[in-house]
Amino acid sequence: MLKSIKKNFFCWLEEKLPYEQYIMIRSRYYWLSTPSEWHEKYRFPYFLSKKKNAGKKYCIFRYAEPGSSLFSSGLGHIFSYEWAVSKGYIPIVDIEYAYDFQKKCLGKNNEWEYCFEQSMNIKEVIRQDWVLVEQVGRNGTWLEETCLDINGSRDDAMIHVMATNWKDYYKKVNHYIKKIWIFKESFLNEYRQECGCRIKQGDVVIGLFLREEFSVDVAKERTNKTARELYKKHPLTIGIQEIFELVKKYMEDWGCNKLFISTEIQDSLDLFLGEFGDKVIYVSRKRVRSSLYRNHDQYWDMDAEGKRDYDKKLNEMLNKKDKTIAYAKEVYGLSLCDYLIAPKSSGTAAALALNGGKYRDICILPDFNNIERY
């Protein structure tokens, strides 16, 4: 009852007050009511600074869950960017890690800036006179007109993985992202030297996006109850062997002579290298063995603090910055292919958006959980 009253009160307040005054009141309430819950504070809009007569107004957009969310954030930012511009704010994306935020190390690790250009570096932005922090993503702020234009609904702030009418849909999406997903020239040069040089004029390339963690192979061996329930909220696709057979069929049907593959599992890469040899193009990165995803009971039985410590150690072991850049290279590479085979995921939506409807054909792998969000 109290929760409902509070929600209705803030909805009423938002309607009655100018937006910036509303945020001042709302943020003060949440910061005072959750003094020790730093991870909750991360999610709520607030002013980092708000000086009178500030020359420029900056709006930092953070993802709801601090962590690895490069393209989930980027896709949501399509809608929040337009909202910020409509308010006269300069939009900035800031994707940082939970343990950095907890230690008040803002601006130390911004995933977005590993790959994309921004009007100002996040370390400089947080020192400006007027800085609003907002949330990007499913519970964030967006422009209703952009939602309506892309998805035909004022409250659908998501880029979907479409299997029908996808050419027109992603052509429209690409119109929005090309002005905010601006890859750094150093990033593009690294990709060209590593992968682009292996694709010659006349080559026909299939892009294969693998996310084995969300496959029936791993799901049937996952015994931890917490993990099983969590993964029911994510798309569930076919196993690696079935995908392997599908790729062999499409390589012939589509007349392809090259295969660009995105995977963080070394076992999968080895499987395709064994079949297609030097026809396979891939980004060099640290990859793990499939056993890492098979059960992982120890992780799911940890408390929140234990999970953060584990994630930090894993990120350091794999070199999180290198991993993020490698993943971005893979999604970028997928977007340049002639054909695409991929499951429902934010990475797939990003590749489709970057491609802008220019694929000759696509194959979206089945999702047995029928999940709308991912």
Overview of the molecule:
This protein has 374 residues and is α/β, with parallel strands linked by helices. 48% of the residues lie in helices and 11% in strands. The chain has 19 helices and 9 strands. The chain has helices at 2-16, 19-33, 38-41, 70-87, 98-102, 111-115, 122-125, 144-151, 166-177, 185-194, 216-219, 225-231, 240-253, 266-276, 291-294, 297-300, 304-318, 320-335, 346-355, and strands at residues 46-50, 58-63, 90-93, 130-136, 205-209, 258-262, 280-281, 339-342, 361-364. The strands form 2 sheets. It has a 5-stranded parallel β-sheet with strand order 7-6-5-8-9, with helices on both faces. Strands 1-4-2-3 form a 4-stranded mixed β-sheet. Helix 14 links the parallel strand 6 and strand 7. The radius of gyration is 22 Å and the shape is globular.
What keywords describe this structure?
374 residues; alpha/beta; 19 helices
Order of helices and strands: HHHEEHEHHHEHHHEHHHEHEHHHHEHE
Q: Poorly predicted ranges (pLDDT <50, ≥5 residues)?
A: none
Strand line-up of the largest beta sheet: 7-6-5-8-9
Label the overall shape.
globular
Specify the number of helices. 19
What is the share of helical residues? Answer: 40-55%
